[in-house]
C-alpha cells in the first residue's frame, strides 16, 4: 500500500522573514489533519531554519540538489553528508531546471542518485519530456532513457529507496497542467517499465506528478491510480494552497 507524498519545491524563493510563517502554517495545517506524507525543500541556505521550525513535526524537509562528491575542493557545492547532517530526508535530483539550465546529464543525475542513497537520503528522481519531445511523440522513449540511466547504475532493488517524479517540462510553471489522463498514461508507463524488472519494487514505488499542480486541480490529478502525490513548485509558497493539495493527496 503506497502512502501518498506531497513535496514542496520552493526553488530559488523565500526570505527568512516569510519562511518562518510559511513553515509554521504548513506544520500546523499538516498536524491538524493530513493523511499524506508532506515535505518541503527550501533553498540550501534555509535548510537549518527549516530543520529548526519542523523538528519533531509531521513535516519532513529536503534539498533541491546535491553534489555527487563526498567532500573536498568543489567550491560552491553541497555534499550529501551535509544534507544528512541537517536532518534532510529527501533530495530532489535531476530536476528539469538542473538538466536544462545547468547541463546535468543522465549520467550525472545517476551519480547524484547514488551519492544521495550513500548518505541515506531518499532521492526524488525527476524525469519528463519537453514540449518538442511530446509533439514528436517521443515521451515514452525520453522518460525510459532517463530512468534507465539510473536503473543501470543502481539496479532495480535500490529503487525501493527512491521516489520518482514525472514532470512534463511544458507544464512546469506555465499554468498548463497535463490532464489527469495524460499524466496517468506516463505514470502507468513508468510503473510498468519498472515492473518489467521487479513487480514488487514497482508496486511500492511512489511516482509523484509535478507541473502546475494547484489547489483547484489537485484532486483530479492525485486521484489517478498511478499518481501517488505531487512535487509542487509555485503553489508550495502559499500555505493555504499547499495544504489544499496535501489534503487532496491524503
Ligand atoms: O518541482 C516542481 C515543479 O517544477 C513544478 O513547478 P510548478 O508547480 O511551479 O509548475
UniProtKB/TrEMBL annotation:
GO terms for cellular component: cytosol. The keyword rRNA processing does not apply. GO terms for molecular function: triose-phosphate isomerase activity. The keyword rRNA processing does not apply. SUPFAM superfamilies: Triosephosphate isomerase (TIM). It catalyses: D-glyceraldehyde 3-phosphate = dihydroxyacetone phosphate. Pathway: Carbohydrate degradation; glycolysis; D-glyceraldehyde 3-phosphate from glycerone phosphate: step 1/1; Carbohydrate biosynthesis; gluconeogenesis; Carbohydrate metabolism; erythritol degradation. Transmembrane segments: none annotated. The active site is at 95 (electrophile), 167 (proton acceptor). It comes from the Bacteria. Its EC number is 5.3.1.1. It is found in: Cytoplasm. Pfam families: TIM. Substrate binds at residues 9-11, 173, 212, 233-234. PROSITE patterns: TIM_1 (PS00171), TIM_2 (PS51440). GO terms for biological process: gluconeogenesis; glyceraldehyde-3-phosphate biosynthetic process; glycerol catabolic process; glycolytic process. NCBIfam families: tim (TIGR00419). Homodimer. Involved in the gluconeogenesis. Catalyzes stereospecifically the conversion of dihydroxyacetone phosphate (DHAP) to D-glyceraldehyde-3-phosphate (G3P). This is Triosephosphate isomerase.
Amino acid at each position: 500500500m503506497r502512502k501518498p507524498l506531497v513535496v514542496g519545491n520552493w526553488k530559488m524563493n523565500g526570505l527568512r522573514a516569510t519562511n518562518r510563517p510559511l513553515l509554521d502554517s504548513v506544520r500546523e495545517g499538516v498536524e491538524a489533519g493530513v493523511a499524506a506524507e508532506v515535505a518541503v525543500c527550501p533553498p540550501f541556505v534555509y535548510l537549518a531554519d527549516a530543520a529548526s521550525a519542523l523538528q519533531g513535526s509531521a513535516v519532513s524537509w529536503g534539498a533541491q540538489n546535491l553534489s555527487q562528491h563526498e567532500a573536498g575542493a568543489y567550491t560552491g557545492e553541497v555534499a550529501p553528508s551535509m544534507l544528512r547532517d541537517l536532518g534532510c530526508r529527501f533530495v530532489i535530483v535531476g530536476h528539469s531546471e538542473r538538466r536544462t539550465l545547468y547541463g546535468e546529464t543522465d549520467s550525472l543525475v545517476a551519480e547524484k542518485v547514488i551519492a544521495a542513497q550513500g548518505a541515506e537520503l531518499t532521492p526524488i528522481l525527476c524525469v519528463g519530456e519537453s514540449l518538442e519531445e511530446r509533439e514528436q511523440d517521443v515521451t515514452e522513449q525520453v522518460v525510459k532513457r532517463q530512468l534507465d540511466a539510473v536503473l543501470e547504475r543502481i539496479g532495480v532493488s535500490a529503487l525501493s529507496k527512491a521516489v520518482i517524479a514525472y514532470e512534463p517540462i511544458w507544464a512546469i510553471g506555465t499554468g498548463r497542467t497535463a490532464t489527469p489522463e495524460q499524466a496517468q498514461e506516463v505514470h502507468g508507463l513508468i510503473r510498468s517499465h519498472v515492473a518489467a524488472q521487479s513487480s514488487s519494487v514497482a508496486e511500492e514505488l511512489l511516482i509523484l506528478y509535478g507541473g502546475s499542480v494547484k489547489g483547484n486541480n489537485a484532486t483530479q490529478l492525485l486521484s489517478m491510480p498511478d499518481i501517488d502525490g505531487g512535487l509542487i513548485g509555485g503553489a508550495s509558497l502559499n500555505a493555504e494552497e499547499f495544504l489544499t493539495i496535501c489534503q487532496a493527496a491524503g
